[in-house]
């Protein structure tokens, strides 16, 4: 049996994604996979994506709300990479043929105006680095069967990242209370969930500070013009063929995804 290495895990997870193949958790075969090596796998997956021509467009946070933490059974937030290949244009059906078992979740999305480098970044300072706020819908698509994973597994798998859409309304963060920015989540027009921005670490800017500080601990920094997805406000819902998922926000507009 070949031993597991960072390189092998990265190649395997990227191949699962490219060929729409699900698998069991890597930690079941590589129990020594710790968080540090898991982030090394994530970084190696990114390196391979950049090598094949994708561009880094930002970062996402995962497991920042209680709804998400409870569903996935993991209480620690994490970060992952976003590339331009994950951008889904508004108004097109979700290309389900690209995914294994896609789920959608509403998020608040920041565009940064300047660099944010931890440690020591506070939510108040983090928000001042934000140039614009959008509504967002992330499509997650774990490469693990039934979305079953441990924290190192999901970190290695780039936090189940697959695609994301940004909403129709660009707002300045000044004068918006994002802790009170509400979202109503609907499937086929029926309300299935709702949440406010406060669901995300008390305020989405706290999640942004968390991203700056956890990247800082790895010697990295958030860059100007990067997008930051701050994490699902509600539990995610399955994107099924012939059905639609819509998120309606108080001041950030609406996003509707057709199940393709
Ligand atoms: C992990 C990714 C979590 C979020 O917004 O919390 C995430 C998963 O749920 O599969 O993207
Ligand atoms: Mg998410």
TrEMBL record:
Q: Where is the Fumarylacetoacetase-like C-terminal domain?
A: 83-255
Recorded source organism is Geodermatophilus ruber
Q: What high-level taxonomic lineage is stated for the organism?
A: Bacteria, Bacillati, Actinomycetota, Actinomycetes, Geodermatophilales
Q: Name one GO cellular component term.
A: cytoplasm
Q: Which InterPro entries match?
A: Fumarylacetoacetase-like_C, Fumarylacetoacetase_C_sf, Hydratase-Decarb/MhpD_sf
Keyword list, A-Z: Lyase
Residues in a coiled coil are none
Q: Fetch the Pfam families from UniProt.
A: FAA_hydrolase
A single GO molecular-function term is: 2-oxopent-4-enoate hydratase activity
Protein name as annotated: 2-oxo-3-hexenedioate decarboxylase
């Amino acid at each position: 049996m070949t031993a597991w290495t960072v390189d092998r895990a990265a190649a395997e997870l990227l191949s699962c994604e490219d060929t729409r193949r699900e698998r069991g958790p890597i930690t079941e075969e590589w129990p020594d996979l710790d968080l540090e090596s898991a982030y090394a796998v994530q970084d190696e997956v990114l390196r391979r994506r950049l090598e094949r021509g994708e561009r880094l467009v930002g970062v996402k946070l995962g497991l920042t709300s209680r709804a998400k933490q409870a569903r996935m059974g993991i209480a620690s937030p994490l970060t992952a990479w976003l590339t331009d290949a994950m951008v889904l244009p508004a108004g097109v059906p979700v290309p389900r043929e690209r995914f294994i078992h896609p789920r959608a979740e509403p998020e608040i999305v920041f565009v940064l105006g300047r660099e944010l480098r931890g440690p020591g970044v506070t939510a108040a300072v983090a928000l001042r680095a934000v140039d614009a706020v959008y509504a967002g819908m992330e499509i997650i698509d774990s490469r693990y069967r039934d979305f079953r994973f441990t924290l190192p597994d999901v970190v290695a798998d780039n936090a189940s990242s697959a695609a994301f859409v940004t909403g129709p309304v660009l707002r300045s963060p000044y004068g918006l209370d994002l802790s009170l920015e509400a979202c109503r989540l609907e499937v086929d027009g029926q309300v299935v969930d709702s949440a406010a921005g406060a669901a995300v670490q008390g305020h989405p800017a706290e999640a942004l500070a968390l991203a700056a500080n956890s990247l800082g601990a790895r010697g990295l920094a958030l860059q100007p013009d990067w997008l930051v997805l701050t994490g699902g406000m509600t539990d995610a819902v399955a994107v099924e063929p012939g059905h639609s998922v819509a998120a309606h926000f108080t001041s950030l507009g609406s996003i509707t995804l057709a199940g393709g």
